Amino acid sequence: MLKKISFAAFFLSFCMANASQISNGIAVIIENEPITVNEVRKAAAQLQTSEANALNLLIRDRLETAQIKNLKIEASDYELNQRLQKIASESGMSASDLRSAVLSKGGDYAQFKDDVAKTIKQEKLYQSIFAEAKINISENAARAYFEQNRDLFAHFTDVSVTRYVAPSMQLLEAARHSSPMNTNHSVHMDVLDLKSEQIPPQLRTIFQQTADGTFTQIFQTPQGFEMFYVASKKGQTMPEFDEVRDEAMNALYKLEQDRVIGEYFNKLRAKANVKYLR
């Protein structure tokens, strides 16, 4: 659930700086940590967003880092190694293969490990925030949300997909960049025409959210790794609440998570020492 967390952007106003302040490349100083103009521009380009939104995200990152430090949240060597092993396993690799893969792509493995450790710390922070908030979603609340947002739960009646199964993630990654019907002989394919009611709810939601003519993400299964090419979706049906009860509860839970996180970091930002230099 944590991986799906989305954040509301903060509204930021900018102060005008003198020429020397602009030339030193610092946009904001938050809790004595600078955010440079170059960082903002780089983040905006990578995320394909405005510089204002990029700055919001960088401020959030600094606030997270400061709060993790304040709460003395750590990622132990054991936790880090376990997570690295999990990442490798999910990619069909050993831990040493993972290191080689990072290096072969020009990456810095030490930085990669630092990023993984940071993710573990962030997860611990959010877990503590949610535990303190005690989010509880009742069925009645989920039903009311469903009734007010029925269009969000409409889905197709029929879908044509191609299912790909392979022993490694790399084979499926290669299939993504080739013709949908032209793949390595180690990749097994099934062309399927399915009715909506034949599909498990979670997979149906994934198909609904995947644009026609594109691939889903890759999943690890007992058979290896698999993904789907969604050729086309047809028709539309409006389910009853009982058919999408879990989906409605999960959607409402996520909204509550967003609200809790937004309030938490708004309070931190209000207390933080923030100086705008640009």
Molecular structure report:
- This protein has ten helices and eight strands.
- The protein has 278 residues and is an alpha+beta fold.
- The chain has two domains: 26-133 and 272-276, Triger factor/SurA peptide-binding fold; 154-237, Chitinase A, domain 3, CATH 3.10.50.40.
- Strands 3, 4, 5, 6 and 7 form a five-stranded antiparallel beta sheet that branches. Strands 2-1-8 form a three-stranded antiparallel beta sheet.
- Strand 1 and strand 2 (33-36) form a beta hairpin.
- Helix 2 (37-47) packs across helix 3 and helix 6 (109-133) packs across helix 10.
- The longest helix has 27 residues, at 245-271.
- It is globular, with a radius of gyration of 23 Å.
- The model is unreliable at 1-24 (pLDDT under 50).
- This is SurA N-terminal domain protein.
- Residues 52-120 form the SurA N-terminal domain.
- GO terms for molecular function: peptidyl-prolyl cis-trans isomerase activity.
Spatial gap, N to C terminus: 36 Å
Query: Structural class, judged by helices and strands?
Result: alpha+beta
- CATH architecture classification of the largest domain: Orthogonal Bundle
H and E order: HEEHHHHHHEHEHEEEHE
Stated plainly, the CATH topology of the largest domain is called Triger factor/SurA peptide-binding fold
- Could you name the ranges where pLDDT drops below 50 across 5 or more consecutive residues? 1-24
Task: Please state the average pLDDT score.
Answer: 83
Strand content: 15-25%
